Amino acid sequence: MVDISTEAETKNGESPSGDVPSPLTDQADPGGITGDPAGDVAGQIDSKNGNLEESAAATGSPPPDAPADASPEDAAGEPDLKENGADATNEETDKGSEKPADDLPDAEPETELEKEEEKEEEEEEDENLPDTSKPQIIPERQTDAAPDSAPPSTLNSRYDIHSSKPLPDLDCPSARAFEVEDRMEPLHKLFALICIPSMPVRWKEIENIAEQDLPFNLPLVGYGNVDWPLLGQKCLAIIFERPMGGRVMDYLNTPGLAEFKKIDTVRQVVNAGMNGIRKLASRDITHRSIRPDNLFFLDEEREEVVLGSFVTSPPGFDQPLVFETISRSMAYEGGRGSGDTSDDLYAFGATLAFLIQKQNPVKKTPPEQLILSKISKSTYQTLIGKNLLTSSLLEPLRGLMQDDPELRWGFEELELWSSKKQVPPTESRPPNRSQRPFKFSDFDHITSRSLAYSMSLRPESAMGIIKDGTLIKWVSRSLEDKELAAAIAATMEIAKIKKEGNSANDDLLLTKVLLLMDPLGPINYKSIALMPDSFGGSLGVELLRGGGIKTLAEAIFYEVPQIWFDLQTGSSSPQYMEMEVFRQLRVHLQKAGPGFGVERCLYETNPGYPCQSPLVKAENIIDIAELLPVLNAADKNADTKTNPVDRHIAAFIAARYHGNLDRHLGEIADPDNTLKILGSLRILAHLQDRLGFGPQHGLSKWLGSLMGPVIKIYKSRKTRKAIETEISRIVRTGDLNELLSLMDDPEMKLRDEAGFASAIEEFGTAEEEIVKIGLDTGPHSTAAEKISKQAAAITSILVMIFIISVMTMSG
Questions:
Q1: Domain 1-84+121-429 maps to which CATH number in 3.10.180.10, 1.10.510.10, 3.90.170.10, 1.10.10.10?
Q2: Alpha helices of 546-596 — where are they, by DSSP H?
Q3: Closest CA to 220 of 234, 235, 237
Q4: 637, 662 in Cβ contact below 8 A?
Q5: Per-residue confidence band for 101, with pLDDT thresholds at 50, 70 and 90
Q6: How far is Cα 622 from Cα 610, in angstroms, rounded to an integer?
Q7: Within 10 A of 773 (CB to CB), how many other CB atoms are there?
Q8: Quick one: which of 315, 313, 325, 364 has its CA closest to 35?
Q9: How many other C-beta atoms are found inside a 10 Å radius of the C-beta of residue 253?
Q10: Is residue 565 a contact partner of residue 47, using CB atoms and an 8 Å limit?
Q11: Listing from the earlier edge strand, what are the strands of the sheet with 6-8?
Q12: Which pTM was predicted?
């Protein structure tokens, strides 16, 4: 069996994948995601320049010469896989690429001595196989397991997951495996995959296949959050039946295993792959993780082959690029998308191609060279060498690895072939080829598709040949594609008109030119390269690594996906609903308040993505029904002077709750702190009521302590005092709706307003009296004169009385 390792890198050497923290032993680093998305991939991002240095479990040595049955057209060599040294010293031009091998060695030995030497090498080949037991996406840590005395983590009161008992032979690139005991069926052999916290998982697929009968697929028997001691937080655990026969690839690499047994096993794989993919397709599910090291024997007798797990990461994330179609392999790991059944059949064909060969035909081939070889020679010519275990599968391999999805074999063709009936031949449509190669970086290109891919890796050099007219000249004269040349020229003219005031103009120009040259390729915008159906997974991966969230948001804001949709034709044309999703995402991005923005896009496009609010992140909340109880408990450690409904919680609720909360979200975004707090209370009270939660004492106390600004809207001191007293009582009940009824009581507000109006009126009347009194008691007022006269009269009388009294006494 062959070593399926290859060297791999991604767009511009700036992979959105980097170091993913172990889901088992260490906390996630918010500054970056580590990760090798490809089985036996060693991937890490240079912290200084972000370049990805990746060794992917995908391929082996450089592409061989075309097989003997290759047509002249299939064997046409493009691009010239030699170094031309054109840009050897240009750091920017060489960014993201590696120098290809000078020579392409034959895969088949020519002498008997060489054959003997090769046989000896094959017997020792298992020593050189990728270490599938320790996928490199999970960095080595000092602690790989909990102490033997550690208690198990229990799922659904039934499954005990032992963090002290790892199963490295069952690890996958994005999750590690641990032993499981079933309390109800102790003899039931199970294992758990512990997912990386905040890694986007395929939640809908998990819900769809859990506890379902899906022959030829590894049975998923349960899932849910567990307290994971190696991380000190909750993690998603997915329980599977344990494949007692181990990995198919490990068995095929058993030293001394007879070739006829290998061939019989490959036949088992053919049957399992056909039926397993068909069973998933009947549920409208794609696997997107079919590769040699993800095939297992379910039984100890090795009679039942099954396809392995595919739900612990975004579609295609774990795949070595050699098992991805040309279009999807051009995208970065988080942006490959769910695709369709045709993508699974392609991966199945590539998997079989590796299983039937004694040597890896593309060993250590750099990724750019590998993809360019697929474009120029076809996948079949690139992956099929001459040293085969059997030639009986060449016909289905040619059909399954057909690069044109319109011509790729489906189930109907596979059924005809398996029934030994003739499969109607299909005629490939050769791409338009130039007679004069275009030199760009280290390669000579004779098709627009291969040139577009190399340009996408070197955006600055690409913009140079676009703006100076070199590209249009080659497309028009050498490629003789007048229509494409005219489309590029028109795009450039439009870009000139729109240039003023648009800082992203050049980026958008490059995006559209690349799609004009390769309409089936991924969307290339700045540092991202993704298929349109991968947007949700891309957002999650970028958030985990602290990467290009802003770039993804820009792509939606500038309607970049629409460029891709507008250029699709035939059966690949997008459905209306796909485009409508992006329109709705753009609406969310245009609203800046809590509950909208990029956070809303994240949760809308990832139904299984846990809430990322710092208040609840460690609880890995996926279901909205878990939110209030966690917030209720968070008051013990959180800063209760802050609003419990932050941007992530608002967006999570808006995306997960089946109802319209826009009015309340608008209140949360209001600059008036009173409305903001009331809006938060309304949303949480609404959830408590509609989702049937009991008393939430901690959350009630938290919200009650924030009601100061709301209390101040009441003018009456007596009312304020009464409200404060009532809040103290309600907090003890834990009823958020009662608290809301108190704080937002229309009748109380009317009474307070009426009382305030009455007080103002009384105050006005009193003020008028005071003014009147002031006016009536002045020194020249009528009242003053009257009083003065009265006082004078009284004084005169008193004087007369006094005089009379004196006269009487003297007389």
A1: 1.10.510.10
A2: 549-557, 560-566, 576-590
A3: 237
A4: no
A5: very low
A6: 4
A7: 10
A8: 313
A9: 20
A10: no
A11: 6-8, 52-56, 42-45
A12: 0.79
